[in-house]
Write a structure and sequence with these properties.
The protein has 542 residues and is mainly alpha-helical. The chain has two domains: 31-255, Growth Hormone, Chain: A, CATH 1.20.1250.20; 258-266 and 291-530, MFS general substrate transporter like domains (Growth Hormone, Chain: A, Up-down Bundle), CATH 1.20.1250. The protein has 18 helices and five strands. The strands form two sheets. It has a three-stranded antiparallel β-sheet with strand order 2-1-3, with no helix packed on it. Helix 7 (186-220) runs antiparallel to helix 8 (223-243). The longest helix is centred in the middle third of the chain and has 35 residues, at 186-220. It is globular.
Length: 542
C-alpha cells in the first residue's frame, strides 16, 4: 500500500468497531471483531514455528557437519558458526528498515519464507552424493574424506542465504503478530502482554521438534534428508500463513521509515548542540527528533550489559554439542541420542516453565509487588543473567569432571571413544539455559519492543537481536584469539581432541565475565527510568 493510499485511509472517518491506524487486506479500516487478536496471530505463530524448525534444522547440529563432512577444526568451526550467527542476528536491523520503508511486514515475511525454501533447497542439494568425492558418504565423519570445492561453495552461499531469510523473519514476524493486538484496548492489551510468553513457547516447540528429528536424521540417515525435511516444512507453513491474509490487521502510518527518522534525529541533535537559533517549525521538529534519538540512546547501557549473556547463549550449539559427542549417549540397548538432541532440554524447559511463569509466578508476584506483570522487565532480565552465570559455573564443573573421567579411563588420546560418563551429566546446564531464557530472552524482547520511542517501535526487536549479533561476533573473536594464543604455549583450549582441550577454562572465563556484566547491569538498571508506567507501577526501581 503506497503512502497516498495510507493517507487517504487515515483521513477517512473511522467506523464504530474499527481499530485505529490499521486496515484489512483490502485497505479498509480494520474491524475489531473481524480481524486481528489470537485468531490472526496464530497464523503468524505457525510460520514462526516452521521458521524455527528450518533455522535450527541447520544451526543446531551445524558444528557436527563442519567438523565432520566438511573437515574443519573444532575452533575454526565454532568461530565460523558464531560469525554466521552474528550476521543472521545483525541483518535484522537492515531488514527492519527495508520492511518499514518499502515492503511492509507482511510482504517481508512472505519473501523471507520463500528465501528460506530456496536456501534450504540449496543446502539439501549441496549434501547430495554428486557433490562428494568418490568414496565419501553423506554422513561420513572421516577427516580424510575432504569435501569438493563446489560443495563448500554451494554450502556457504546457501548458509548465508538462510541468514538473510532469518533476518527478514526475525524483526517482522513477531512485530506483525504483536500488531494483531490493540494496545489501547484493555482486553487486547492483556492478551498482548501474555503474547510474548506464548510466542516464545511456540518458537521453542519448533526448536525442540527439529533438534530431535533433524539431528537424528542427520547423524543416522543422511545430511541431505536432514536439510530437506525443514525445507518441506517451510513450504507448508508459508501456504498456511497466506491463508490468514484476510484475518490480519495491517498497521498504517504516514510517518517516514524508522531509519530515516533516526538519521534526521541524529542530525537534529548535532544541529541543536551547535545552535539555538532557528524558526519555530524547525525548532519543534528538531525537538521531536532529538527526543527520539535520546529515547534510543538511553537504552544503550542495558543493551551493552547483555552482550556477555549473548556470548554464553552461543555455546549451547557449539562446544556443548562437541562435549556431548564424547559421552555415553546410550538409552537402553539400541538407542543412541544424537549430541545435538541434548539442546532439546533447553526448549523443553522453556515450554514447561513458561506456563508456570505466566499462570502461577506472575499472579503470585503481583500480590507482593502490585505490578501487573509481577516483576518489572529489568528484574526479569537480571534474573536471567544470574541463571546464565550459574549455568556457566555448572558447565565448567561438568567439563572438569569429563576431563577427569577421560584421564582415569586412559582415553585421553582416543577422542572418538565414548567416555564412561553418562550424557545426563550435561542436562543440568541445558535446563539452566532454558530457565535463563524464560527470564532474560523474553524480558529483553518485551523491553526493547516497549521502551523504544513509539515511532521507532518496529526497530525495537531488531535492536534486541543486535545484542546477539554482537555477542556472536565477540564469541567468534575471543575463540579465535584464545585458540591462537594457547596454541603458542603448546595446547589449544579448543583442541580437536577435546580430551586434551580445556573448555573448562573457557567456561570459567565466561562465568567471570558474566559476573562483571551482572554488576554493571545492576548499576545501570537502578538508575533507568521507564518510558511508560501504569499508575500502579510507579516506584519500580528495576
Amino acid at each position: 500500500m503506497d503512502t497516498h493510499a495510507v493517507t487517504d485511509v487515515l483521513l477517512l472517518p473511522r467506523p464504530d468497531g474499527a481499530v485505529a491506524n490499521t486496515v484489512d487486506f483490502r485497505g479498509r479500516p480494520a474491524s475489531r471483531l473481524g480481524t486481528g487478536r489470537w485468531p490472526a496471530a496464530v497464523f503468524v505463530l505457525g510460520v514462526e514455528i516452521a521458521e524455527r524448525f528450518a533455522y535450527h534444522g541447520v544451526s543446531a547440529n551445524l558444528i557436527s557437519y563442519l567438523t565432520g563432512p566438511l573437515g574443519e577444526s573444532t575452533a575454526g568451526a565454532a568461530a565460523a558458526i558464531n560469525a554466521w550467527s552474528g550476521v543472521a542476528t545483525m541483518l535484522p536491523l537492515l531488514m527492519a528498515c527495508v520492511a518499514d520503508a518499502w515492503l511492509g511486514r507482511y510482504r517481508t515475511i512472505v519473501f523471507a519464507s520463500l528465501l528460506f525454501v530456496v536456501s534450504m533447497g540449496m543446502l539439501t542439494v549441496s549434501a547430495l552424493p554428486p557433490f562428494h568425492h568418490d568414496g565419501c558418504s553423506l554422513n561420513s565423519m572421516s577427516l580424510a574424506c575432504s569435501p569438493s570445492p563446489v560443495q563448500v561453495a554451494v554450502f556457504y552461499v546457501s548458509l548465508y542465504l538462510v541468514a538473510l531469510a532469518e533476518a527478514g523473519h526475525k524483526p517482522c514476524a513477531q512485530a506483525f503478530a504483536a500488531d494483531q493486538f490493540d494496545q489501547h484496548d484493555p482486553k487486547e492489551s492483556v492478551s498482548r502482554s501474555s503474547f510474548f510468553n506464548w510466542w516464545y513457547f511456540g518458537m521453542c516447540s519448533g526448536t525442540a521438534l527439529t533438534t530431535i528429528v533433524s539431528s537424528y536424521i542427520q547423524d543416522n540417515i543422511g545430511w541431505g534428508l536432514g536439510f530437506g525435511i525443514p525445507c518441506l516444512v517451510m513450504v507448508f507453513a508459508l501456504l498456511a500463513f497466506l491463508l490468514g491474509t484476510r484475518r490480519y490487521r495491517y498497521y498504517t502510518s504516514t510517518q517516514s521509515s524508522p531509519f530515516a527518522r533516526l538519521t534526521r534525529a541524529f542530525v537534529a541533535l548535532i544541529r541543536g548542540s551547535k545552535s539555538n537559533h532557528c524558526d519555530s517549525d524547525h525548532a519543534t521538529d528538531d525537538a521531536g527528533h532529538q527526543e527520539e534519538v535520546k529515547g534510543v540512546l538511553r537504552l544503550f547501557p542495558i543493551w551493552a550489559t547483555c552482550i556477555i549473556y549473548a556470548v554464553i547463549f552461543s555455546q549451547s550449539s557449539t562446544f556443548f554439542t562437541k562435549q556431548a559427542a564424547t559421552l555415553d549417549r546410550r538409552i537402553g540397548s539400541t538407542l543412541h541420542v544424537p549430541p545435538a538432541a541434548l539442546q532439546t532440554f533447553i526448549s523443553v524447559t522453556i515450554m514447561t516453565f513458561i506456563p508456570v511463569y505466566d499462570r502461577a509466578f506472575v499472579p503470585l508476584a503481583r500480590r507482593f509487588t502490585r505490578l501487573s506483570s509481577g516483576i518489572t522487565m529489568l528484574q526479569r532480565i537480571g534474573t536471567g543473567l544470574v541463571l546464565a552465570l550459574v549455568a556457566m559455573v555448572v558447565a565448567a564443573l561438568v567439563e572438569m569432571k569429563r576431563l577427569g573421567v577421560a584421564r582415569d579411563a586412559g582415553l585421553v588420546d582416543q577422542p572418538k571413544a565414548a567416555l564412561p560418563m553418562s550424557l545426563w551429566w550435561m542436562v543440568p546446564q541445558y535446563v539452566l539455559f532454558g530457565l535463563s531464557d524464560v527470564f532474560a530472552m523474553i524480558g529483553l524482547q518485551e523491553f526493547f519492543y516497549d521502551q523504544v520511542p513509539d515511532a521507532l517501535r518496529s526497530l525495537g526487536l531488531a535492536f534486541f537481536l543486535s545484542i546477539f549479533g554482537v555477542g556472536h561476533f565477540f564469541s567468534s573473536f575471543i575463540i579465535s584469539a584464545i585458540d591462537g594464543a594457547t596454541k603458542k604455549s603448546g595446547a589449544s583450549w579448543f583442541s580437536n581432541n577435546l580430551n586434551r582441550a580445556h573448555l573448562d577454562y573457557f567456561y570459567w572465563l565466561l562465568a567471570a565475565l558474566c559476573a562483571a556484566e551482572l554488576v554493571a547491569f545492576l548499576i545501570v538498571s537502578r538508575v533507568y527510568v521507564y518510558k511508560k508506567r501504569a499508575p500502579h507501577d510507579n516506584g519500580a526501581v528495576m
